[in-house]
Amino acid sequence: MPVTIATAAHPPRKWERSKVSTAEELLEKSSPGDHHRCRNIIQSSFQQSSFHQSHISPSSNGLVWSVFHAYSAHHNLTLRPEDIWFAILTQLSFFINAHAEELRSFFVAHKGQKDLEVKAAGTIDSANFGVLAVRMTELMQKNVVDEELRDWIMPSFTTTTESDTVVAAILMMGALQKYFSYKMGLLCGIPSVTLLGDKEDWVGILKRIEKLKQLGDEPARFAQLLRPVLNHFVLSFEIPNSPEVLDFWNRCAHKHFMGSGPEYLSGWISVFCFWNEDGRRLYRDQIYPVSSDEFKRRNTDLSLDDALARRIDTDEVPSAYASVPVRVNDNGNIYDTMMLAGLVGIQATSSGATLDQGMGHYGDQHESSRSEEGSGEETGLDSIQPLSGWWMYEKQQTEDAEGGSGQAHLEAAVGSQEDEHILPESDSTGLKDCSSVQQVVADGRSSVVSQG
Fold this sequence. Notes:
With 452 residues, the protein is of the alpha/beta class. The protein has one domain (3-367, 379-436). It is built from 14 helices and 15 strands. The chain has helices spanning 23-30, 32-37, 48-53, 62-73, 81-98, 100-107, 129-141, 149-153, 162-175, 199-208, 217-238, 243-249, 293-297, 305-309, and strands spanning 3-6, 38-44, 55-58, 76-79, 114-121, 180-187, 192-195, 254-257, 263-266, 311-313, 321-330, 333-349, 383-395, 411-412, 432-433. Strands 1, 2, 3, 4, 5, 6, 7, 11, 12, 13, 14 and 15 form a 12-stranded mixed sheet that branches. Strands 8-9-10 form a 3-stranded antiparallel sheet, with helices on one face. A hairpin with a 5-residue loop joins strand 8 (254-257) and strand 9 (263-266). Helix 5 packs parallel to helix 9, helix 7 (129-141) crosses helix 9 (162-175) and helix 10 packs antiparallel against helix 11. The protein is globular. InterPro entries: DUF4419. Residues 355-434 are annotated as: Disordered. Pfam families: DUF4419.
């Protein structure tokens, strides 16, 4: 059962950040670079009804900034096991792509990139590319050294949805893109914290990170930093009202202003910022070999000292999504596309509680601007949680068909008459013209403030 921890005595405050109204606008403001490369959105996990029914704000890192905003601006916070696991997978993807050759023997036995292909019935307008992405991971599993790799990556929590499975599949494809190129064949025709899920879901994440040390000294240190944080998530189910748990949630995120210099983010949320998008380590302390005494002395189940000692420049908070190129051959018509997935927004809802009308110590320069709605209501949007999802979009024709630095080449071959791997047609969102929106918004990072 979910657990809610009353972490402070004050009531929640209203969420006043602006909302987006379409999947394209969310892409534009959460990942301006990908939106600039986008010619058409082919498919997405975001249905138009979601934007009418929910208040969704863009964010380049839905986890880090949800936790920070909730703490600094007094909003209730809800987290799912998937939010934490996707943040870990995204970080790991950055590291693997930056050290692909060093890690090659751990993942695959072949050299270069191996072509993988899955097939489905339909056209680029009707095929379910989310299902194809999941199918691709099943084919990938047959071509990796570790027989348990896919099961380790794919979420299987009590809160896992079909969209979550697709997000994880795209993250897996992105993480191993230096070892595989992907083809898809389309055949003609056919102020509280709520932890969702069960305690066992969160224990499951703890078990999964044990595999990280097999990838090298840096991932092993990443796991060391994650372990006490994840253990406190588990403790939140066991002793939700204990001083230890309340102290943990009150030390999640702090903002430090350095005069005219940079601004830093500290608190245990910083452990989810171990690598940047290029796989460069943001953790600046010394990395020790796993076999060394120095490494073993750092092992801890509950001490947050190392996690709390870290701080990161707010301009260096990495994104929590990954993208991978895909070439679709739709019965002879070639489309250069990208699939992108991860934590790409912040969803706001109302708990029904009376809002705190006091003025907060909450400054704001990075994330998207506040909405123009009034703030005099007694109740309103006061609770937020990270939003995960995915897109597939057609790239601008001027974009290099091989994609950006560190990205794989994914080709979808269409028109084969083979009966293997045929999937039924399914509904999808129509093509959306990204080029119709000219303004490119700066990366949605937040500069909010204080120690609430």
